[in-house]
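Field reference: sequence -> structure
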Amino acid sequence: TTTNKLRARFRGQFSTSAGGGNAVAALFANATANALTATIATVNAASQSNTLSFEWEWVPGATSAQKIKVNVGPATAITIRMNGGPTTSFFGGVEAATLVVEEIKV
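Structure field:
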């Protein structure tokens, strides 16, 4: 129904090319220009890693399919890499960034 909620959970590891670097993850739905929610995380040194994560609930107000996406990028003029360091992946490339979306019947 149009009153059902959606819950999105996101989690991903990142590293930066420079110390003091920030990464941002933002949740978008459909063609909306503004993010529904966003989070920022910092690393203190190059090649150090940190986690970006959020959980968000909203009522889309529609029964049609919803296009949900997460955009991740640097907050400053640096390079970030998901699931690895500046030159290599972590854990042989098996680490994953995940987005889980659930519909909650109201």
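Note: Residues 84 and 91 are 8 Å apart (CA to CA).
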